[in-house]
## 1
Amino acid sequence: MKTRIAVFVSGGGTNLQALIHAQAENKIPDGEIALVLSSRADAYALKRAEAASIPTAVVSRKEAKSAEDFEAKILAALESHGIEMIVLAGFMSILSENFTARFPARILNVHPSLIPSFCGAGFYGLRVHEAALSYGVKVTGATVHFVNEIPDGGQILLQKAVEIREGDTPEILQKRVMEEAEWILLPKATAMVAKRIRDEKTEK
Ligand code: GAR
C-alpha cells in the first residue's frame, strides 16, 4: 500500500499545489496525499485541496485551549485518516517533542533559506527573506529537512541555492526561492521518504 501522507498548511498553499501537481504527474509513485490539515480555517490552501478532491481537516491553533490540546486534535485527525508521514508546507506552528517523537524521520519541512542561516524560532515566511536581504547575503535558497524537537534543526535532506539580485524585495525574493527551489525540492523529498516508508512496510 502507498504511504499515506498528510500535508500541513496555514496559508496560501503553493507548496501544497506543487505536491498536488507532482502527484498528478506520478512523481510521488509510492505516496498518496490522504489529508490536508490546516491550522487556520481561512487558509487558501484548503481550496486547493478541495479542488483536487483531497480530504481536509481544520485544527485551529487560536481556538485550541493549549498546545497539548492543539496537538491532541491533530493526532486524532491523523489517526482517523491512517496517516504515516507528514509534510509541513507553510505550516506556521511549532510542534512539540511529544508530537515529533511519534514520527521519527517521518515529518518533512520546507524552509525558505539555506539552513543553518536564517532559521529557528521567529524565522518564517517573508521574515526569512527580510533577514537575508538585510544581512546582505548574495546567495540564499531553500532546505527540506526532517522535523525533530529543535525548530529547523532536523537532518537535512535536500538544499538548493538561489541567487539574490540587485533590487530584490522580500516579496520578489520569496517568489524566486519558491519557483527555483521549494516547489522542486519538496515533491522530490516527499517522493524519497514515501518510498522509504513503503519499503520498510514490505520488508516486515
Ligand atoms: C514557504 O515559503 C515556506 O517555505 C515557508 O512559508 C511559505 C509558505 O508558502 N515556510 C516557513 O517559513 C517555515 N518556517 P505556501 O503556503 O505558498 O506554500
Note: The radius of gyration is 16 Å.
## 2
Amino acid sequence: MATPATQDLRQTGRPGDPCTMVIFGATGDLTRRKLIPALYNLAKENLLSREFAIIGVARNELTTEQFRESLTKDIPGFLGCPLDNDLWEWFLKRITYLQGEFNDPQVYARLQGELQRTEKEHMTHGNLFYYLAVAPTFFGEIATQLGTAGMLAEEDGKWRRVIVEKPFGRDLDSAHALNQQLRKVMGESQIYRIDHYLGKETVQNIMAFRFANGIFEPIWNRRYIDHVQITVAETVGVEQRGGYYDTAGALRDMVPNHIFQLISLTAMEPPISFQADAVRDEQAKILHAIQPFTAEDVLTHTVRGQYGDSVGTDTRMPAYRAEPQVLADSATETYVAMKLQIDNWRWAGVPFYLRTGKRMAARHTYIAVEFRRPPLRIFRDTAVDHLTPNTLVIQIQPEEGIKLSFAAKTPGPIMRLGTVDMKFNYADYFGVTPSTGYERLMHDCMIGDATLFQRADQVEAGWSVVTPLLDVWKALPPRNFPNYPAGSWGPKEADDLLARDGRKWRAVEG
Ligand code: BG6
C-alpha cells in the first residue's frame, strides 16, 4: 500500500537539456518499440525539454510525412497506456526524416543542413544527441563519418553525445578496436554505451538496497554469505533474430553485458559518492577481480546448451535448429551456466553461479543471495531435522521486489520449523508507471549523467572474462546439442555443476 512518505520518493527531476536527437536506424524495431515511446513518456512527465527535435535517419525511401504516419500507427501498441493526442501532435511536429546510406558522406552534409534548420525552428541550443540504433557493423562507420564532418566537436558550451547500442564487440579484440575507433573522433565523456538492464528500476534498486540501508552491508560478505545465484531465464526463442543470434549465442548476448551488470552491482564495494566515475570505478574493480578461466575451468565450471523440440508442453515449440535463419547443424549455444569466483577480500571463496537461456520453463530474472546456516544446531534433539538457509531474493522481472526467507516455529506443542517470507513488491508501494526501460537512460544522456552507461574499461573487462570461454568452446565444438527441450529448465549438466558443490538451483515459484 502506498504511504504518504512514498509520495515524496517520486521526485520528477529536471527536464533534459534542449537538444536535437538524431536516430540512426530510425525505421528499425528499437526506434518504434522503445525509443519513441520512451521519449513520449518523458514528454508526458515533463522530463523532455520543450526545445527538442528528432531527425530520423535510415535507408528506407520515406518522406517525413510517411515516417510520422508509421510512428503514429505503431505507438499505441507499444505505449502501455492511452495516447494523449495533443501531446502526440506536439511531439510529431518535432520529427523529420532523412533518407540515406550510413557510409555516404553526402548524407552527413544533408544532415548538417537539417540540424541548422531544427536548431532555428525548435531552439535546440545546438546540442546534439546521436543514437546509434543500427547493426553493430555501422557503429564505427557512423562515428567516423560524424567525426570527419566535424559533427562531434563540442564548442561554445554545446554538447555532442553518442549512445552506442549493444553488442559492443564480439570479443575482447573487437571491443578494444571499436573503443579505439570511437576515441579517435570523440572523448570518452561523449560516449554513452548503453545496457538496457541498467534502465530497469529493479536493477537500479540494487544500489539503493545495499547503500541506502545500514542493516545489510555488515552481512554482505564471505563471512555470512554462502553463495549467490543469478538466473536470467527467458521463455522466448530467438524469434526473428536468428541471423544475429546464430553468430552470437547466449554467452555473448547476455553475459558480458546484462549479467555482469547484475554481478557488479551485487558485489561492488560502496562507492565514495554517487558520481558516475565513483560508481563505475567500483563496478570495474569487480569485473577485474573475477578469477580468469583456465581451459580446465572452462571444462569444469561452465555448461552450454541448445534447445531441441519441446517435450510434453502445452504448446509445441520447435528446436533452435529449426528457427528461421539458423543453420540446420548450428553449434550456437542458447543456454549457458557457469560458476565464477571473485578474488577480493569480501568475496574470496563465495561462488557466484549464473545461468541464462532461451526457451526456458518460465520467465524469471532474479539474484538469490543464500546465507550460511547458523553455526550451532541447537535444535538437534527436537523434531527439527534440518535448517533451511536464509535467502534474500532480488526479483528483477517479471515480479519486481525483494523477498527474505527465514525460519519460524510452526504453531503447536512440538518444536517444528517452517520457512516464511518477508516481501516487498514494487507495485504495492509505488504503483505501476508505464515504462519501456529506456526513459531514464535517455534522460540521463540529455542531462549528461553517465552513471548508468558503460565506460570503455568496463566493457573490455567484461570481454576479458568471457573470451577464454569463447576460445575453448570454439576449439571444442559441442557434441551433445540439442541437450535440453524447449520449455524446460536447461541441460542436466547445469544441475550437476551445483550438485558437485552440494548445492542446487533455487526452484522458481509459479
Ligand atoms: C537483449 C538480448 O539484449 O536482451 C535479447 O539481445 C534478450 O536476446 C534481451 O532477449 C532480454 O532483455 P529483457 O529486458 O527482456 O530481459
Note: Residues 1-10 have pLDDT under 50 and may be disordered.
## 3
Amino acid sequence: METLPDQHTKILASKALLAARQGTKRGKPERSLLTLDDLNNSQMHQLLEGGLEMKQHPERFERALQGKSVALLFQKTSTRTRCSFEIGVGEMSGIPMYMEWKTSNFTLADLADEARALSRYVDLIVARVYHHTDLLTMKKHSEVPIVNGLCDRYHPCQGLADFMTLREYFGDLKGLNLCYIGDGNNVCHTLIQGAVKVGMHITVAHPPQYPPDADLVAAAQTHHAITLTQDPRAGVQGADAIYTDTWISMGDESETQTRLHAFQGFQVNQELLAHTPEHALIMHCLPAHRGYEISSEALDSPNSVIFDQAENRKHVQKFLLAWILEQV
Ligand code: CP
Ligand code: NVA
C-alpha cells in the first residue's frame, strides 16, 4: 500500500508536469511557412541565397538534419513536392516519412487531434491539403512547425524555387518584370507575394472570371508591384520572364469545361512569345498540360527554365527545412 505522503508527492509531480506542458511547442513553430508572407524580406533573401549555396555545396549540409524526422502528409497527388522533400531530407541525414491522407486517420478524426498526435513523432510536418484553413488548424495544434506543400490558396515552396531560379539567371531580382498568364490561383498568389518581397514587378494576365485574390492584389498595389490585364499580349511586353500554370488546379476538376472555354487565348505559345523580349525566360511550376496552358514549343524552347525550377525545389526546400529547424 502507498503511504499518503508518497501519493501526495506523485500528484504534485504530475501536476507540475501538466502545468509545464501547457502550450509546449518544439522546434521553431513561429517559422512555420504557410505563405511567403510568413517571411520578412530579409528571411526571403536568406532562403534564396541558402538555396543557391545548397545547390553549389550540398556536402556542407550532409548532416544538417541528423536525428530529425519530417512527416510529408499529402491529401492530393504530387511528383515534385513529394520527391524533392523526401530525397532532400534523406540527403541531409534526416528521416522523411511520407503519409497519404486517405490511408491515414486524418480521414475520419478531428484534424486538430490528428495533427497534434502526428507532431509528437516528428520534428516538422509538410502538408499538402485542399483547404488553406486546414493548415491554419494544423499550425495551431501541432507542436512542431508546419510547411505548406500546396493548398488551394498558396504554394510557397514552389515560389521559393521560382525566385531562386530567377536569381540564378539574372543575378539580382530587383526591378525585374515577371508576367504570369492564366489562372489567378495558388501559384499566382504566391508569385504576387514573392514579387513584393524581392522588389520585382508582376503583371497578371487573366480571363475576367479568374482574377487573383483582391486582397493580395491590393497589398501588392501599395508597393506599385502589380499590374492586372486581360490581354496576354499587352501583359508580356517588356517581361523578363513569362510564367504559366494549369487552367485546372487540383480540386477544380468539376469546372473543367467552363475553364477550358474561359482560358482560350491564354496559352503561352510561340505566337505570344513573339511579343516578348528575346531574353524572356519561360516558366511553369509543372505538372504541365501541353497544348493547353503551354505549347510544346514554348515548354521545350531554349528559353525554358522549367526543369531548373523543378530541380531547385529540392535545393531551396533543403535549406528551408534546415533553417526552420535551426540547423543553419
Ligand atoms: N510543382 C509541384 O508542386 O508539383 P507536384 O504537384 O508534382 O508536387
Ligand atoms: N495550381 C496547381 C499547381 C500544381 C503544382 C494546382 O494547385 O493543382
Note: Residues 26-155+313-324 form a domain with the Rossmann fold fold (CATH 3.40.50.1370).
